Amino acid sequence: MLEQNEILQLNKKGWNRVAEQFFEGSFDVLKYGSYAPSEEQLNLLGEVQNRVILEIGCGSGHTLEYLANRGARELWGVDLSGKQIETARDVVSKLNAAVNLIESPMEEIAGLPMNYFDIALSVYALGWTVNLPKTLHNIYGSLKPGGIFVFSWEHPIHSVVEYHDEQLRFRRSYVTEGAEQHDSWRGTPIVMHNRKMSTFINTLIAAGFRIDQVIEDSNVADDDSVSPAKWYSGTKARMIPSTLIIQCHKPC
Ligand SMILES: C[S@@+](CC[C@H](N)C(=O)[O-])C[C@H]1O[C@@H](n2cnc3c(N)ncnc32)[C@H](O)[C@@H]1O
C-alpha cells in the first residue's frame, strides 16, 4: 500500500481531474448530502452573522459564498485540489467578504491560525483525509474555546451496502478499516479510507471535542424517480442513512 504522502499526491491529481464534476452552483439552502437534512432544518451552525469560519475541503467555494451571504465576517477555505481552489477564488472574488483560500491537504495546513475560528465546517470532505487524528487535531487547535465543528460525510453503513437483485447487500466488510485503492473512480485512480462510525466518534473525542449531536436522519419524499441501483436513491435512503452529520465543540 502507498504511504500517506503518496496517497495525497495521487488524490490531488485525481481531484484535479474530476473537480468539474463537483462544481456547485450558488445555493440558498445548505445541503449536508444526498437525502440528508439541510442546515435550514437542523440549525447546527447557529448564528453565522459576524462569525469567523473555516471550511475544510471547500471545493468550488459555494458553501463559502452561502456563508458570506449570511453575514460571516471572515472566511477561510482549505482544499487539496488546485483546480477547486482556482474555481473557489473566482466564486469568492464576487463577494463582499474577507476570504482566505489555502491549497493544502487538511492533514497539514501551513499558516492556519490557532484558537481563531468560531465555527469549522466540512461538507462531504473530512472522510478523504489520510490521517483522521491529525486532521481533527488541526481543526480542534484552530477553533476558539467554545468553537463549533460540524461535518457531514457519507454514512459508513451506506458505503458498504449496494442494491442488487432488488435487495440491499453488503459489498464489503463494515468492520475492516483502512485505505482502499480505486483504479477508476469517476475515471481516475484514487485512494479512499474506510472507517466505522465509532472511529469518527472516538477520534473526535480523542482530539478533545465534546459531541453535541449525531444525525443519521434522511429526507425521503415519496419520490422513487431515482433508480435504486444508483449509489444514492430514495429506496436505499429509506433503509439506511445516506449521510452522517456530527456537531461538536471545543470546550471552554
Ligand atoms: C466531495 S468534494 C466536497 C466539496 C465541497 N465541500 C462541497 O460540498 O461541494 C470533496 C473535496 O475534498 C477535497 N479533498 C480531498 N482530499 C483532501 C485532503 N486530504 N485535504 C483537503 N481537501 C481534500 C477535494 O479536493 C474536494 O474538493
In short, what is this structure?
By secondary structure, the protein is an alpha/beta fold. The chain is built from 7 helices and 11 strands.
Strand content: 25-35%
Q: How far apart are the first and last residues' alpha carbons, in Å?
A: 40 Å
Secondary structure class reads: alpha/beta
Going by CATH, the architecture would be 3-Layer(aba) Sandwich
Organism: Paenibacillus spongiae
Keywords: Methyltransferase, Transferase
Domain Methyltransferase type: 54-151
Protein name: Class I SAM-dependent methyltransferase
What does this protein structure show overall?
The chain is α/β, with parallel strands linked by helices and 252 residues long. It has one domain (4-249): 3-Layer(aba) Sandwich (Rossmann fold), CATH 3.40.50. The chain has helices at 4-18, 39-42, 62-69, 82-93, 132-142, 197-207, 234-237; strands at 52-56, 74-79, 98-103, 117-123, 143-154, 161-164, 167-170, 178-185, 188-194, 210-215, 243-249. It is globular. The mean pLDDT is 95. The chain binds S-adenosylmethionine.
SSE topology:
Layout: H1 4-18, H2 39-42, E1 52-56, H3 62-69, E2 74-79, H4 82-93, E3 98-103, E4 117-123, H5 132-142, E5 143-154, E6 161-164, E7 167-170, E8 178-185, E9 188-194, H6 197-207, E10 210-215, H7 234-237, E11 243-249
Parallel strand pairs: 1-2, 1-4, 2-3, 4-5
Antiparallel strand pairs: 5-11, 6-7, 8-9, 10-11
The protein binds S-adenosylmethionine.
S-adenosylmethionine binds next to helix 1 and strand 2.
